[in-house]
Amino acid sequence: MNIAIISFTKRGRELSFSLREALKEKGTVTLAPKQKKVSEWAGRQFEAGNAMIFIGACGIAVRAIAPHVKDKLYDSPVLVIDEYGQYVIPILSGHVGGANELSRFLAKQIGASAVITTATDLNGKFAVDVFAKKNGLAILDKAGIVKVSAKVLNGERVTVSVEGYEKTNVMEDLEKELPKDMELVSYPPEGEADIVISTDREVFSHAVLPLKPKEYVLGIGCKKGKSTEEIEVFIGEILEKMGITEKEIAGLFSIDKKKEEEGILRWAAKKKIPYQTFSAEELARIPGVFEGSEFVKEQVGIDNVCERAALAGCKAGGCLVLKKQIKNGITLAAAKRKWSIDWRGDTENEA
Question: Pairing between strand 330-336 and 216-222?
Fold first, then answer.
């Protein structure tokens, strides 16, 4: 995660240094120089997909971000902290963007209070958008989030239909994991179901909230200094070739020597796609036959980065669906992961 911090007073500037230290494990943290037009600064952060922390009044933050707010599923997370560091307030993208989670973490680090206002959090209830994010599920109709959340908050029964859980004995196992007031129904659902999790879009006609597993991961390697624009163009070509969209990508993976590769980091942040790297030793343990390169091995310690990284990103059960592709010093490969659902993964809102 890239996090940008802006402050407006001497005391706020002093606090920003403490925040930068506290947030080191969360990602790259930058402190904004004095800005004449805060809204323009905020616009640049939205474009880059960066999280933002305003040290000052909520009104300043609201006015700065207002022209740039577009979609709750893709907006950058925004936090406000008073200059004394007493309160951490997430004001945008609390669930999908992770602002609530970041607020709790930061409040704990600096001894502040996290001011969380989302209803599911306040009531310790299941948050379906957090669940979708943690399980790598694409939300295909965001209007369904409100409808499902309303049922959860009202204590009404929420029906769930999941691909792969057609057999009675398997359904019984899953039912033990479901949150309170949630009921597993057959797949495909006979009528309407509140939540439908499937890779088959035709089934979504029965869903209030359709959730599609992000089945694909990308492995990437590149020469140092490749621009975000070059990477974006090549990835776009690969996805078009595969007949899929960015919404179906669960993650982007590479070798740890590319952990700070700016072009890759910026693309991943902009697209809200998780980026993770592995050591050469970890990649060497990935089984399979790969298109090796002695030059690459000399440079990074492993003969093939993109194919191995794609499979490593799948964890268990993945398979390559697109072998190494090369363009202008960038290599890409794609794998299809074996997806699964963990209903116990929604720990953010536990009372």
Answer: antiparallel
